[in-house]
User: Fold OstA family protein from Qipengyuania aquimaris.
Amino acid sequence: MKQHLPAMTKSLLAGFALTCAALGGMQLNAQAIASHNSNAPVSFDAGRIELQDRQDRVVLSGAVRITQAGLTLNAARTVVDYSDAGTLEIQRILATGGVTVSRGNERASGDTAVYDFNRRIITMAGNVSLNRGTDRLNGGRLVIDLASGVSSVDGRASGSSSVTGDTQQSGGRVTGTFSVPQD
Assistant:
């Protein structure tokens, strides 16, 4: 038994190292969205636009597509809050209805999303999925911090965020798959 222990230990350590490498690779390479320049101009395309000047917001609906420096947000409807101190400055975008955010080979999807321009954070909730190549993470809430480059997935959409969602698919847990390098 003692002779098999070192071989088993090596095998377990090798498996652990491969898992860590796969997780590290996802973290290092899944930063396409997180390395985004949130100060770049924002363009939009929608079926309908409603300007609500008194509330300092614009409502876009009908296959909305918003782009900014290679980042694309698609949704059924968005509410864009802005400030008007001589020039219009976007403060926040609330997107609902089949929301996807993509940049490069990374794609995040969920039921709702909030892009907070002041805090440089995108929060997605409700049946969230983060994909990069064949790697995939699923959960209830995804927070992408554009300033720090850190993305996190929670099993349940909870906390003080105004974005909430249903996590029936993941059962309150984060699930996923990572590809492993082949020899």
Remarks:
- The beta strands are 43-45, 48-52, 57-68, 71-84, 88-103, 106-116, 121-132, 135-145, 150-154, 175-177.
- The radius of gyration is 20 Å.
